[in-house]
Structure formats: C-alpha cells, structure tokens
Amino acid sequence: MPRRWISETICDSPNFNQLSNEAEIHFYRCLTCTDDYGCFKSQPAILKGHCYPLKEVGLKDIQLRHKELEDKGIIISWQEDGRDYSVFTSFPHWNYTKRRHSRKTPIPPQEVIFELCSLHPLYWLSSGDPVPRKERKESDEPRAQPKPAVKAPDLPLDPVLAAMAQCYEDNVGVLTPIIHASIIEARDEYPSGWFEKAVAEAVAYNKRNIRYIMAILKRWQVEGIGNNGTKAKSKPVAKVLTAEEQELIDLDGFINIAADDYVEDEESSLSNSNNPEAKRLAKILAAKEAREAKEAKEQDLSF
C-alpha cells in the first residue's frame, strides 16, 4: 500500500468528532484498505479479514460501525455485481500520492461521482485514472535525435617527447601532469638529448625528482656541457670573498662564488649531498648567512 497521511483538519471536523470510539477505530482501519483513489471493498467479511484479523469483532458490529461512517457523510457506499464498495468523501484533501497505481476497485457510479464532485469540485484532479504506459500516445512532434558523438582528431605523436617521458618513467617514477609539463618545457628550451643525460646524472647522485633534473639543465645551459655528458668546468669567479668571509671560512683552495639565484635554486636539492658541488655551496651559504648576521648585529648596536 502506498504511504498516505491524514491532515490535521479532521480534528476540527464536527462530523468526525461526533463519531463513537468504535466508529473512529473503524475509520482508521478502513483507511489501510483504500487504494490510491480512496475506494475500498466494504463487504463485512472482507473488512473482518483485513481490518480485524486478530480482534473478536463480529460482522454485525462491523456493519454498525460502517453505517455510522455513512450517516456522518464520511464515506459513500455502493454495490456492483453483488459486492459492496465504499469511498472516503474527504480523501482528496488528506491523501496525496505522486504516482498513482492501478485501481483495486471499480470506478464509482455516476451518482456517487456527482455527489463527490458536489462536495469537492476538484475531485477529478486528484482521483483521475492513470493512463497505462502502453496506451499513452506518442507526441505528434518527432523527438529530437541525439547528436552523434564527435570523435577527437588523432593528433600526431611527438617521438622526441615520448622518448623523454619513457626515459623519466624508466629511471625516476610515474608521470604526473606537472612533471609532463616540465618535460615539455625541457624539450622546448634545451637541446635534444640533454634531458636523458640530465636524468642519468640525477640517478647517479640518487636525486630522482624532476626539480633536480631541471636544475641540471639550467646549469648546463649557463656553463655548457662536455661531449661525454659530464658537466663543464665551473664558470669564472662572479664574486670575490670579503675579508670577513675569509676569516669565517677555512678555504681549501680556490672557491667560486655562484650567483645568488643559482644558490637559491640549488640549495634544497644539493645541500644534503656528498658531491663536491654541494659542499662548495654549503660553504658559500654559511659565509653569506654569517655576513648577514654580522651586519644585522652592527645595525642593532648603531641604534
């Protein structure tokens, strides 16, 4: 049975509040037998089986309770083919079903329908028979045909980019959209073959990440690269050590000072490495930090 509910207006109905307790109980129990149109089979024997299966209620008592509902105008009863049927007169007001099921009872006769319409002019709006799916007429207008799917054009594959991506996957790890964008940048910015050599150098230093590889390419672009794939000699001195830096650092031979932007790009990747480049940068960074700390201290003392 579809879910249904009762409006609070029945509590204010004079006819409903004049019912006896037995008739009011009969009202609630008959409600469970109705279809989506407020109709139900009302033969005493059927009501006995549906509404009072576990209560000792006689057929005579059921007839009296049903008659009381009829006298108060709560239900209207009729007979068809020797069977009794009833319909709740206020059903359209306190029942609502979004999707109606097929009828379980015959359509009420004309006189019952006229009486229901006189009580509720909008009765047919809430109790009209549903049209079976097979009997529904198709619309005269043809349905809009779905547009055929447009196949994406087959773009030519770039063998150079494919080889670079395969080299990264074989030696470093899984490709991601960000890594793929970096590989495209490397293809466009640096000579062919540099990326594979940079990957090999990164693997040799156990620095398997795209940032380290791109830093190697950037350094090679500035300093150049040897024929055998090894990095070129360090570029000439870009900055001379100050007297304070010479006192703070125990220099072991000649140290080249790299540009500040190069130091910042390389420090996170090379600071913990044991290669000579990392040691050189560590000393430079230590001198730089010491000098900045000394200058800050002098400024504080000047105030």
> CATH class of the largest domain, anyone?
Mainly Alpha
Order of helices and strands, N to C? HHEHHEEHHHHHHHHHH
Whole-number total of structural domains: 3
Mind describing the biggest β-sheet?
A: 3 strands, antiparallel
Q: Please tally the β strands and state the result.
A: 3
CATH architecture title of the largest domain: Orthogonal Bundle
| Structural class by sheet pairing and helices | mainly alpha
User: Kindly, what is the distance between the CA atoms of the first and last residues, rounded to a whole number of angstroms?
Assistant: 90 Å
List segments where confidence is low: pLDDT < 50 over at least 5 consecutive residues. Answer: 130-136, 227-239, 247-272
Helix content: 40-55%
Widest β-sheet, arrangement of strands: 1-3-2
Radius of gyration: 46 Å
CATH fold name of the largest domain, please?
A: Arc Repressor Mutant, subunit A
Mean pLDDT figure: 74
Q: What overall form do the CA principal axes indicate?
A: elongated
Number of helices: 14
User: Hey, roughly how much beta strand do the residues contain?
Assistant: under 5%
Structure, explained:
It comes from viral metagenome. This is Putative DnaB domain protein. The chain has 303 residues and is mostly helical. It folds into three domains: 123 residues, Arc Repressor Mutant, subunit A (Orthogonal Bundle), CATH 1.10.10; 77 residues, DnaD domain-like (Arc Repressor Mutant, subunit A), CATH 1.10.10.630; 69 residues, no CATH class. The protein is built from 14 helices and three strands. It has a three-stranded antiparallel β-sheet with strand order 1-3-2. A hairpin with a 2-residue loop joins strand 2 and strand 3. About 15% of the residues have low confidence.
